[in-house]
Amino acid sequence: MTDELERTIEAFLFSAARPLSARDIQAWLPEEPLDRIQAALERLAREFESLGRSFHLREVAGGFQFRTRTAYAQALLKMLSTSPARLSRAALETLAIIAYKQPIIRHEIERLRGVDTGSILRTLLEKDLVRIVGRKNLPGRPLIYGTTRRFLEVFDLRDLAALPQLKDLQELTTHDEEKTSEAPAPVHEAPEETGPARAILPEPPGADGRDGDP
Fold first, then answer.
1. Which of 4, 67, 122, 145 is deepest in the core (most CB within 10 A)?
2. How many CA atoms lie within 13 A of 139 on its CB side?
3. 77, 83 Cβ separation under 8 angstroms
4. What's the CA gap between 10 and 29, in Å, rounded?
5. Cβ distance 124 to 147 under 8 Å?
């Protein structure tokens, strides 16, 4: 049976524009033990999953958030009268390298890709998918890049440990190559399962004072 704590947490989650962790919620409910809040979150997630609604409660980016199911992405895009922002193949490749190799500097990214990545890094920074985490102690003190919390939200990941294993990707690539010989090349785009009004990658937030290589 749902208790008052779960109802209160449900209200927080419904009103929040970002994933909320148990610690976030405890800041507003300091009288509640952290483990009780965490247990309530997990019960709520199971409850909404069992309801079979168009949305569910997912653990992403270190917190919990209501997110619409993939099946309704196209309908939502029609309602919002827009189309999803898509990343180019080059941007996806660069983002994947940063995700799996972080912390990483631009030179290492370009060594793996074999081409300049300055403009791509600027795009990923503007979309808040990548951030500058410091400078490496090398001549010129190059910037070091890593992924952001927004990256976890967009790709529906609980944390970086939830990234697919490289061996799984290799198997998927092999499978795709076999299919490609018989079908047109697939279009790469951001995942469709996202939260309400989060089905689209954000417009570039604008310069935020970051300096850097790009």
1. 145
2. 0
3. yes
4. 13
5. no
Please report, as a single letter, which amino acid is at residue 6: E
Beta bridge partners of 146: 131
Rounded to 5 degrees, φ, ψ at 130 are: -135, 150
Task: Tell me the pTM.
Answer: 0.62
Rg for the chain (alpha carbons), in Å?
20
CA dihedral 121, 106, 191, 171 (to 10 degrees): 150
Tens of pLDDT, residue by residue, the chain (214 residues): 458 999 999 999 999 989 999 999 999 999 999 999 999 999 999 999 999 899 999 999 999 999 999 899 888 888 887 666 788 999 999 999 999 999 999 999 999 999 999 999 999 999 999 999 999 999 889 999 999 999 998 888 989 998 988 776 666 556 655 554 544 444 344 443 444 333 334 333 333 434 446 6
Q: What is the helix (H) or strand (E) element at residue 174, kind and residue range?
A: helix 166-180
